[in-house]
Amino acid sequence: VMAQDGDPVGSGFVASLARPGGNITGLSTLAPEISGKQLELLKEIVPRLSRVAVLGTSTRPGTAQALKEIELAAGAFGVKLQYLDVLDPKDIETAFRAASKGRADAVLMMVAGGVASAHRTQILELAAKSRLPAIYERPEYVEAGGLMHYGVNRNDLDRRAATYVDKILKGAKPADLPVEQPTKFEFIINLKAAKQIGLTIPQSVLYRADKVIK
């Protein structure tokens, strides 16, 4: 049983979500529609949003699919995207400089965890220094001082993983258990971070948050 970040099919772990085959099954965090919702939330807190810097990792499975979703949302909102590829930690500062130079109004952070996790403090400091509202895929960023998180509710995935273990222990074959995708999402806002960059979060957005850090 696994909880796979990204695309388990594209990564070669399973043959398909419906019929994984082999000895691996479980839950995937792949939900491309998340990125479209993230852009929508940025638009709500920055009404004059016209340019968004998307910091991603092109080698990460699922990135191409997520970018297609962002592009669809950007077209609907009349927003221009600036994609900045972050393949290595040394690319992080360069990407933020490019976002500022490109006159980005906000940042959508989807850099792979293997590249960014150990550099979370640097990312948060650069976002604050650039005065750029940023939305992150993982809640740890917002709990550490970042502005917003919208993404998969990982606690729910952990609970659902237990049902897989139970079924397999009772004799089910992993190959016959479909890989499930997320059904529950979470939205967290950090008002301290908003105040730091002089941003007022609309009440309509705050009401929808699962957690507000004050």
Question: How would you describe this structure to a colleague?
Answer:
The protein has 214 residues and is α/β, with parallel strands linked by helices. The protein is 39% helix and 19% strand. It contains nine helices and nine strands. The strands form two sheets. The protein has a seven-stranded mixed β-sheet with strand order 4-3-5-6-7-8-9, with helices on both faces. It has a two-stranded parallel ribbon with strand order 1-2. The termini are far apart. The mean pLDDT is 86.
Total helical segments:
9
Strand content: 15-25%
Q: Considering DSSP H and I runs of 4 or more, what fraction of the residues is helical? A: 25-40%
Structural class: alpha/beta
Strand order of the largest sheet: 4-3-5-6-7-8-9
Order of helices and strands: EEHEHEHEHHEHEHEHHE
Overall form = globular
Alpha-carbon Rg, integer: 18 Å
Largest sheet: 7 strands, mixed
Distance between the termini: 37 Å
The number of strands is 9
Q: Which regions have little confidence, pLDDT < 50, spanning 5+ residues?
A: none
How confident is the prediction overall: mean pLDDT?
86
Strands, helices and their partners?
Elements: E1 2-4, E2 26-28, H1 33-45, E3 51-56, H2 63-77, E4 80-85, H3 91-101, E5 106-110, H4 113-116, H5 120-129, E6 134-136, H6 139-143, E7 148-152, H7 154-169, E8 185-190, H8 191-196, H9 203-206, E9 211-213
Parallel strand pairs: 1-2, 3-4, 3-5, 5-6, 6-7, 8-9
Antiparallel strand pairs: 7-8
